[in-house]
Structure formats: C-alpha cells, structure tokens
C-alpha cells in the first residue's frame, strides 16, 4: 500500500488542491453529511496558509466543481464586501483557522448526523470503546461555548483557540471540524470521526453498560493509527476513482 499511495506532503499546486477539495464536497454530499447549502471546506494555497480556497456561497455540495472554488485571503478585511463573498459563517470560521493554526492547511466543517447528535449532549466526549473511537483518544478538541450561527469574527477565533494543537473538534450544539495537511487527511479524519460518533450513539442506544478500554490500551490503539497514514491517502484516492467513474465533472 505504501508504494501505491505514498504519503503526500503539503503542496502548493492550486489546480490539484481544487480537484481534491471539489471531490471532498461531492463525497460528503453522497455520505449525507452536508446541511442543505450550508457548511464549508477550505484549503490553503499559500505557504503561510492565509490565502485559501473555499466554496462559493450557498452552492450545493453535489454541484461544486474545482473551478467554482473562491480564492480568499484571511488577512483581507474587505472579503465580505466582494460581489462573490463567501458565506459569512464560512469566512468567520475558516479565516480564523487559517490565520491561527499551522495544522489548518485544510479545514472541513460539517454537521454530519451522528457527530452533531453527540454535539448536543451535555457531555459530547467520545470514549474509547472500539478501535475507531480510540483513534480520537486524547486527540479530539471540544468547543462547548456555542454562540449562535457562526457569522461573526469572535466565533471563529474562539473555535481556533479551542482546537489548539488538535486536528479535530466537536463544536457543542453545532457540528464538527477536521484539519489536515492534505484534503485526504482531513477527509479521512472526518469519515472516521462520524463513524466513531455513530458507533458510540448506537452503543448508547442499547441502554447497556459500555466496555471502555483502559487508558493504556486506548493510547496504544490511538498511536497505532499513525502507522496507517498511507491508508488515509489510499482511502481518498479510491473514493476519487469512484467519482471519476460516476461524476467526473467535479474536476472541471
């Protein structure tokens, strides 16, 4: 697998990033993770991470193409005055992430059903009850200070502060955001975070006691996921091949 899908490092190839980000939108819609014409993904195209791609305002994920993506600058205060300005909440969240967090080369923000259901709980923490939930053991941030629709600057700043050095966050009463060096890494984290949330919600629904891994085994399992980083890229490349067969216009 490592030879077929070598782990890619952050690249500044805007054309390739456009294609990958457009693929992520299409795949998220197919999985039912999107929220009508809301939610937003971004990918940095500058070395400092402050200039980035983001989806146009209120475009359905199933229709987004590589050429549709906007280029915006996190340091440009006039962005929301543009005729093609992005959604206000997209700007609030993603400009703050790209300004503040070096790990935010790519940021995927969604309201997927199971993870969002967890975000509504008084305690949204995901315990390590299997190997997927254990992937996020001590590696998942939580922002529980919901401030309404995230369309003002301090909401994005607070979210970035809550994330800290993590690469995924559950946003209380809201949704989730995953970060990565590449679209493949952020997408794979999003996929597994929703799977972890689904497993936990289903386990809770039985009403029976949970069998939670002890801290040592949970940490060992979480660390073990790092040896499979090439699989994150393989996962995304395989899903792009599905799109290439069934809906290749995302590349346009």
How does this structure look, described?
This protein is of the alpha+beta class and 252 residues long. The protein has one domain (14-251): Class II aldolase/adducin N-terminal domain (L-fuculose-1-phosphate Aldolase, 3-Layer(aba) Sandwich). Helix content is 41%, strand content 12%. The chain is built from eight helices and seven strands, in the order αβββαβααβαββααα. Strands 3-2-1-4-7-6-5 form a seven-stranded mixed sheet, with helices on both faces. α5 links the parallel β5 (141-143) and β6 (168-171). α2 (88-100) crosses α5, α3 crosses α6 and α6 crosses α8 (229-246). The longest helix is centred in the C-terminal third of the chain and has 23 residues, at 183-205.
User: What is the general shape?
Assistant: globular
Give the assembly state of these chains.
Answer: single chain
As a percent range, the share of helical residues equals 40-55%
**CATH homologous superfamily identity:** Class II aldolase/adducin N-terminal domain
**Termini separation:** 29 Å
Strand content: 5-15%
Just name the CATH architecture: 3-Layer(aba) Sandwich
Structural class: alpha+beta
Please trace the helix and strand order, writing H or E for each element: HEEEHEHHEHEEHHH
Calculate the mean pLDDT score and round it: 93
The tally of domains stands at 1
Structural Rg? 18 Å
Main sheet characteristics: 7 strands, mixed
């Amino acid at each position: 697998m490592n030879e077929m899908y070598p782990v890619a490092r952050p690249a500044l190839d805007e054309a390739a990033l456009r294609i990958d980000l457009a693929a992520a939108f299409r795949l998220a819609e197919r999985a039912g993770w999107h929220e009508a014409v809301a939610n937003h993904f971004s990918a940095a195209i500058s070395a400092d991470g402050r200039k980035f791609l983001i989806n146009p305002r209120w475009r359905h994920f199933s229709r987004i193409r590589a050429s549709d993506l906007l280029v915006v600058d996190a340091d440009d205060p006039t962005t929301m005055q543009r005729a093609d300005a992005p959604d206000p909440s997209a700007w609030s969240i993603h400009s703050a992430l790209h300004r503040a967090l070096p790990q935010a080369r790519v940021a995927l923000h969604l309201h997927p059903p199971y993870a969002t259901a967890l975000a509504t709980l008084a305690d949204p923490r995901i315990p390590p009850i299997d190997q997927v939930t254990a992937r996020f053991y001590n590696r998942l941030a939580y922002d529980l200070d919901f401030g309404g629709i995230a369309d003002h600057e301090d909401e994005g700043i607070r979210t970035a502060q809550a994330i800290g050095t993590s690469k995924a966050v559950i946003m209380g009463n809201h949704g989730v955001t995953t970060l990565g060096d590449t679209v493949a890494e952020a997408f794979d984290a999003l996929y597994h975070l929703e799977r972890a949330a689904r497993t936990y919600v289903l386990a809770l629904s039985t009403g029976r006691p949970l069998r939670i891994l002890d801290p040592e085994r949970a940490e060992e399992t979480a660390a073990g996921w790092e040896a499979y980083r090439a699989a994150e890229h393989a996962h995304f490349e395989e899903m792009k091949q599905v799109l290439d067969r069934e809906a290749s216009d995302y590349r346009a």
